[in-house]
Amino acid sequence: ETGVTQTPRHLVMGMTNKKSLKCEQHLGHNAMYWYKQSAKKPLELMFVYSLEERVENNSVPSRFSPECPNSSHLFLHLHTLQPEDSALYLCASRDRENTGELFFGEGSRLTVL
Amino acid sequence: AQKVTQAQTEISVVEKEDVTLDCVYETRDTTYYLFWYKQPPSGELVFLIRRNSFDEQNEISGRYSWNFQKSTSSFNFTITASQVVDSAVYFCALSDGNFNKFYFGSGTKLNVKP
Prior knowledge:
heterodimer; A: four-stranded antiparallel beta sheet
C-alpha cells in the first residue's frame, strides 16, 4: 500500500465512449503525475501537476484531458480514444520538498476496443 | 535530450544466482538524479534507490548493490543471491535537478526460478 489509489483498476471502453480515471493520494503530497505504460516501451510522462497547476503537458493528444481539482485528486478524462491508447495508466505523487521519490498507484489497465 | 536505455528486456535466472541489470542514460544536465524502481505483478512501482550526479560512491543495501559510473553514463543494479520474490520488472529513471520530470527506461523483466 503506497498511499496512492487508482480507480478503476480495469476499464474496457469503445472508441466513442467517454470515461475517466481517478487517482487519489493520502500522503499530503503536492505534485502529481500521469504516466502511460505500454509493453516494452519506456514509461511515457503525460502530465505533471504541481500545487494543482499543470506544469507539464508532454505533447499528449487532446483526447486525454487531465484535471486536478485539489492536491489530493487527479483525474484523466478520456474521449474518442484509439486502440493504440490501450495501456496501463499510472498515477504518481511526490512531496515537492523531498528529494525526488515518486509514489505510484497500482495503475488502471485500459483496453480500447 | 534526456534518455534512459535498459537494453535487457527480460532476464531469467535460477534462485541464488547473482544478476546485474544494466542502465545507460543520456543527459546534458550537470546536476541530475538516477533512480531504480521495482514493479511487482500488482502494478505499483516501488522506489529502491536514488543517486545524485555528484556522488559516484557505490551503494550496497542487503542483497542489492548499485554501480554508478559517470564515465560510461551507467547506473547498474546487481542482486546477489537472487530469490523468487525478486521477480518483477525493474525500471531505471533519470530526473533533472528540480525533479520536475522523470524519464524512465523500458524496464527489465527479471524472472527468478526456484
